[in-house]
Design a protein that fits this description.
CATH class of the domain at 23-114 and 130-150 and 166-203: Alpha Beta
Strand content: 15-25%
Largest sheet: 7 strands, mixed
CATH topology of the domain at 23-114 and 130-150 and 166-203: Rossmann fold
Helix content: 25-40%
CATH architecture of the domain at 23-114 and 130-150 and 166-203: 3-Layer(aba) Sandwich
Low-confidence stretches: 4-9
Order of helices and strands: EHEEHEHEHEHE
Structural class: alpha/beta
Length: 217
């Protein structure tokens, strides 16, 4: 009689990816269409990776008129993407508060989760009380340790706010001079996160080539 217990694969630790997406009225048309396509392709990249030692979980928080959890945190392979729609102004502070609540919630993000990646994409200026919220986010015990990536879309984006969000991290601020470069940025994001998920230590940030045809501030 074989008394060996059946082999079971060890549970993968979570690698959270949280996208803060500006869906204000100025993102209408080509910008939002290309952003939706880029996010969908990013999710497909995460789903197709069969070599990861970490399980990538994705949440999307939109801010346009109001801040909303558009996609609750879930394994990338389980996400059925629903396109984002544009509306209203740019309440970044409210979006940061939603992200902060998620990251600080140990039921949602257990203590053994890997360092989250937070992505901020915007084409304009916030118009709520975001400064104190961002300062708290940057100084938080958990939120302050996150990997940050940010992209300014077009020439009207608030570069100062986006740099402040990056919080002195290793990544530069990327600029999509036109909407077509949104996809290039998200391919970089996908490669960065996927590389982390396969690394011996997914908490270490990878050194990978940055998009050649995108501006860096």
């Amino acid at each position: 009689m074989n008394n060996l217990a059946p082999f079971t694969r060890a549970t993968q630790r979570m690698l959270p990816v949280i996208l803060l997406a500006d869906v204000s009225g100025s993102m209408d048309g080509e910008k939002i269409a290309l952003l939706n396509r880029a996010v969908r392709e990013m999710l497909e990249t995460f789903r197709d990776d069969r070599t990861a030692r970490a399980e990538i979980h994705v949440s999307v928080i939109t801010f346009g008129g109001v801040a909303t959890v558009h996609q609750p945190l879930a394994p990338a392979r389980e996400v059925n993407w629903v396109n984002m729609n544009v509306s209203g102004n740019t309440p970044l502070g409210a979006a940061l508060e939603l992200a902060e609540s998620l990251i600080e919630n140990k039921d949602a993000l257990p203590s053994n989760a890997y360092r989250p990646t937070i992505i901020l994409v915007s084409d304009g200026y916030p118009n709520d009380s975001w400064e104190l919220v961002l300062d708290r986010f940057n100084a938080g015990r958990r939120t302050g340790k996150t990997q940050r990536l940010a992209m300014a879309i077009g020439s009207d984006a608030d570069e100062g706010m986006l740099r402040r969000f990056l919080n002195g991290g290793e990544e530069p601020l990327f600029r999509a001079g036109d909407a077509s470069q949104i996809a290039e940025f998200f391919r970089y994001v996908s490669q960065s996160v996927a590389t982390r998920s396969r690394a011996a230590d997914p908490n270490k940030l990878p050194q990978i080539p940055r998009p050649a045809d995108m501006d860096e501030f």
